[in-house]
Amino acid sequence: MDVSVVLPVKDERDNLRQLVPRLHAILDREGVEHEVVVVDGGSNDGTREAAAALGARVVMEHRHGYAGALETGFAEANGDYVLTLDADMSHEPDFSAKMWRARERGDIVIASRYVRGGVAYTSFVRRATSMMLNAVLRRMLSMPVRDLSSGYRLYRRAAVADMRFEGRNFEVLEEILVKAYARGFSVVEVPFTYFPRDSGRSHARLAQFGLDVARSALKLWKLRNSLESADYDERGYYSIIPIQRFWHHRRHRITVSWARGAERILDAGCGSSIIIQSLNHAVGMDFNFDKLRYLRRCGIPLVRGSAFALPFCAGAFDCVISSQVIEHIPYEEVLFDEMRRVIRPGGTLIIGTPDYATIGWRVIEPIYGFLMPGGYRDEHITHYTREGLRQILQRHGFQVEEVAYIARSELIMRCRRVELAASPSVDIHAASNAA
After folding, report:
1. What pLDDT is stored for residue 215 in this prediction?
2. 356: which of 238, 330, 377, 382 lies 20 to 30 Å off by Cα?
3. Three-state secondary structure call for residue 283
4. Angle at the Cα of 92 from the Cα atoms of 89 and 97, rounded to 5 degrees
């Protein structure tokens, strides 16, 4: 099935008699195999009977509230896509054809009132409040979306599969969008003209909605500033915090200037950084599939893999980049064996990590952890120093050719793969202590 249309309703009998036939007609005309799922929240006006008579499948919401209705609808849907809209006729059903045609442009398609070409015909107070709320949320949550509160959406099923909702009412709309975007799914907005409902009484309360959104936004802010967000690394480059922006720009300049001449480059642990986006002839590899999902829109060859067993043949690359990776994983000799294996003889390794021997980093890390809870600080499980890392690299056949620092705290080394004089007998416990 192509699309499941999910309609959360309560006492919408008269509107459903107009809406459901029009939905069937427009989707049939587009050649879309579909179903209509009406999620009822306890109607007393014959809504369930009317919906069933119109060929819709009627289910009762599993949890009270708008969020519970969407949760139920997503669980009941059989389509590859899920279309959600209000049953009060404020969402023009014929517009669903435009949304269906836009499905290849994004994993989530939003009927947007606030992009260029979009219009909202409602009271001045309601429109102004909605626009201001969306502007605040867009900035606070760093979301490239102008209409976060629109409920008229087309979701790729994978974007909402197994998602857990914390919200109870209409604030769940922002929650769904932020959580899906943080998992790397893309969003596109299509201009839409909004008219008030045809008949019946609205179940939304603006003041309560604002309070619910504020509470939800605080939780979502923590998610957006954690490593769980697929665009975490990219956002650092464009951060509004001057020192964070400087840090990412400096790291980018050093790394890209050292790597840009190579023909075959591997960025192992690429995340969503601007580094991999700036390089030609580069392959991005990461263990986090959400970050790779986010990067796919850039047209970069991407591979999901582990630094402990790089999924490439020996000598496959002229240059390997490992930037801000090794401190996040347990120390093992095989990490450096694998980097050496996939680099051709004479090739380049660019490796970056905090230098825990510097006063700068020992001061910066706790401050960063306080300002950015859930960020990198809590993920640094292996601590390296310049001298300890140099010894490890030398044992594995790398000659350090150039060293750079960011604010005398973050260490970046450019190394050349050379022939090993002999196969050393490695004391792993001693090497770990040196690191």
Report:
1. 85
2. 238
3. strand
4. 145
Name beta bridge partners: 36.
Answer: 5
- What whole-number distance in Å separates Cα of residue 229 and Cα of residue 345? 37
pTM for the full model?
0.86
Evaluate whether 206 touches 246 at the Cβ level (below 8 Å): no
Q: What is the pLDDT of residue 431?
A: 46
For the stretch 213-226, pLDDT in tens is: 888 898 999 899 88
Residue ranges for the chain with pLDDT beneath 70: 197-209, 367-378, 421-435
Q: Which of 253, 217, 248, 216 is nearest to 231 (CA)?
A: 248
Residues in the chain: 435
Q: Which one, of 225, 243, 239, lies nearest residue 141 by Cα?
A: 225
The verdict on 156 and 196 lying in the same domain is yes
Residue 343: its pLDDT value, please? 97
Which of 375, 279, 370, 371 lies closest to 321, judged by CA? 279
Instruction: Assess whether 211 and 239 both reside in one domain.
Output: no
What's the CATH number where 302 sits?
A: 3.40.50.150
Report pLDDT for 244.
Answer: 87
CA 139 to chain centre: 16
Q: In 296-407, at which residue ranges do the beta strands (DSSP E only) sit? A: 302-304, 317-323, 343-354, 398-406
pLDDT of residue 228: 84
- Which domain, by its residues, includes 93? 3-224
Q: Give residue 369's pLDDT.
A: 63
Q: Which long-range contacts (CB under 8 A, 24 or more apart) does 252-258 make?
A: 252/278, 254/404, 254/406, 254/412, 255/321, 255/323, 255/350, 255/352, 255/412, 258/348, 258/350, 258/402, 258/414
Backbone angles phi, psi at 30, to 5 degrees: -80, -5
Element spanning 284, H or E: strand 282-286
Question: In this structure, are residues 285 and 231 in contact, taking their beta carbons and an 8 Å threshold?
Answer: no
Q: Is the same domain home to 188 and 271?
A: no
Domain identity same for 204 and 284: no
With b for 16 or more beta-carbon neighbours within 10 A and e for fewer, the 229-268 pattern comes to: bbbbbbbbbeeeeeebeebbbbbbebbbebbeebebbbbb
**432 and 379 in contact (C-beta within 8 Å)?**
no
Cα 92 from Cα 83, distance rounded (Å): 13
* Structural contact between residues 325 and 249, judged by C-beta atoms closer than 8 angstroms: no
217 and 71 co-located in one domain: yes
